[in-house]
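Quick one: structure for this chain?
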Amino acid sequence: MQISKSILNCECGAKVEIDVCLFIDVAAEPELCWKLVRGELNVAKCKNCGKFIYLNEPFTYFDARRGEILKVFPPSWKEEDEAKGLSSESKFWTRTLYGLDALINFIAAGSHFPREYRDLVADQAQTLADEYNAVSENVCGCGLPLRVERSLLRSFGQSLVEIVKARCTGCGEARSFFLKLPCERAQQKKEPEVPVPLEA
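Got it. Here's what it folds into:
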């Protein structure tokens, strides 16, 4: 793992030093995968206000055992770059995701699905990350952001709706969001579902 140092600006105005790792090889250093999932990679705590600050830079996740390379870009880049693959000539399965949440969703699926379903699982991981990101952009009446706790899928006639439960990070008030899924995704649900159990 190659580590460099960077300085980030906290919202409180303080300068925060952060250890930066923009490439991990999880086959060589498997502990880095779980460090990433636990939110302990590319993060620093502001000594002034106590807030955790996450680095929002392009990041590469490499798993030689499964033959996978995932490039993770900031969510704000998604509208500018619609390309899914990184290189058609690579001997590895490659994919571009937007936001670390999408990568973590993909990792959480583990190795419990056949490799031919990787694109489908990556699509689902990205969709969930996009939905959760949209919810987290809302703020509670007290002015603090919301955090997604869980989501449920419900079918209403021909429509598939995802009910996302969120809670205020400050006062704790709970809120629900109803997200109507695209028709294409609803139609996909008629096919046999790919099992994607979460790791304990």
